[in-house]
Each structure stands twice: as C-alpha cells, then as structure tokens.
Amino acid sequence: MIFLGVGALLAGGVVLAMHRRQSPSQSDPLGAVPSDAQVVMAANLSVIRGSPYRGMFGSSTVPSLVPGAEDGCGRNLSERVETLVVWEPSEPGASFGIAARAPVRAQSVWECARGTMASRGAAPTYAEVEGFWVITDERLGPGAAQIAVEDSGLLLLARPGTRSRMMDALAGRTPSALGAGPHARMRGEVGPGDMTVTVVVSPALREGVARWLDEPVALERVEGVACAADLRSTTEVRAIVWCESESVCGSLADRMGSMRSRAMGSLAMRATGVAALLEATSVEQEGARLRVRAKLPAEQVLDIAQRLDRLQEEWSKPSPRVPAPVGSGADETLRPTDSSGR
Fold first, then answer.
1. Does the pTM of the predicted model rise above 0.90?
2. Which pLDDT does position 9 carry in this prediction?
3. Nearest C-alpha neighbor of 293 from the set 277, 305, 281, 308
C-alpha cells in the first residue's frame, strides 16, 4: 500500500507538471519575458490582421523567426504568428528577445530553418532543451541568435544568454512579466489592447530620450509609461505616466500642455493632421500619474500616418544642386555706351 501511495503521488505530480506546462499562461509569449525587462511590446496580430491597420502589420513588418528565410517557409511562418512579444533587457548592451505564438510544430520550423541555413552553406543543428527544439546555425559561432520552438506553438528568437533567461522565466525559475513585476502592474492598470507597450524608465533610458527629443527634462523623475491601443475602425489609445510624486506629474502636465498648444498653432502640424490628433487627446492628472486618452476614426489616423510618411520622404531627398556663379572676365565688364552707340 505504501508503494502504491508513493506511486500515485509521483504519477499525480507528473500529470500536474504536464498540466501546468501546457496551461494557457505557459503558452503566452509574455511568460517568456523576465519581469526585470526595461521595455515590453506585445501585439495581437491575429486581430490586427483583420483591422484597418493590417497593411501596417504585414509579414514584412514582423521579424523573421527564421533568420534568412524572409520568403517561402519563413514568410509563411511570419504570416501565421498570432501573438508577438518583443522585449529589451535593462542591462546596457544586452540583446533583445522575441517570443511568439503560432499554430506550428517544432518539426516544421526545424525543416524550414534547416533548408534555409543549408542553402547558405551553413551547418544547422538542434538540441532538445526542456521541451524546446533549440536550432543553431553553427557557422555563425556560439553567440549567434537561436530559434527555440516547442510543439505548443511557442517560439523564441534570441542570443543564447537571452534565450536562457526566457526559458528560466517560462519554467518559473525567475519571475516573468506575465504576472509579476512592474510590467504586469502597468499592463493591468492601462488595460488590454490590440497592442500594448510598457516601459520602466531607467536613468540610461531617460538620458537617451532627452538626447533624442533635445529636451533635457523630457522624462525627468518619471518611473514608468504604459500604452494600450485598440486598432479597430475607431482607434482608441490609452496611456499612463507614473511620476515620482504628484508635483512632478503636475509639472509634466504643464509642459505637455504648453507643447500641445504650440503644436496646435503650427501650420506644419495642421497640414500633416497632427494638430487634429492633439485636439482629440485629453490629459488628466490623478495624483502621481497622468492618464492620456485619444480616440479617432482609423481612416483619419492612417491619413495622418501617410502624410507623415510623404513628408519624411521629401525631407530625405537630396537638395537640388545650384549652379555655381560664373565670374565675368575683364572683357565682359559692362560699360556705358558712348554717344555713337558703341
């Protein structure tokens, strides 16, 4: 009886472990993101592909999960991705990671990767690690990006160190952004969306944004930012900015109001439609946080995007060449004619 009881406990443990590994939360790509990430972007591509924004999220904009296979099987895989998550670690110089979910099997991804790598003269290999097939291009060396795929349809693309961190988060050895840490908290407060972005503002990120915007206090004493967008026929964007204190948020709201007024009074901003977007945007302070909301028809948002694209193309064109002035010689100097007309 003792042995039977021990056997039943062991069998129950195995079944429970399998159930936990195959539960919906375990197949969510967010579960592969460490909770201490700096930036996390998640997109529900299965919904976006049926929205007015489908042209902006085609296969060409989805990172290839099989590097080098942008066409053929690689493009087919990209077009089948249902959920895509891209995250950036907080450590300077660390490589980003990609997690995705698609209705694919590990064998099919291996065959696609093997054929693509072999066509380049590479030596593809795979090893089974914790239920994943980890596919490596040996020719690229030990630090190159790897593909990891399991039969649940969960795919990872990252360099070995980052890939190991993602698998640690999936296995529960470290907390994941799915249910722990600042990203889970921010995502819970901003609410769901077809696309969400959550950012933990570190000193390095704050300095980088200040240089990019040429605004030294752009994110001064801001702790985090979250944004959720519903990309439907009526587009709604919600954002929350977390400040260190209520007074910091009040100062930031004043600066945003001044920038908004200047932009709305700009002829260029009105010509591109950005002023109309700002008119549809509201900013409300709630203690140590700001809530930003905007709602516009998708056609109007897409029109603004097209205008900005055309403007960027014009700016990127080389300036027309202006002919150099031709100097006059001594014999070409203009002189008043004499009385004889010479």
1. no
2. 30
3. 281
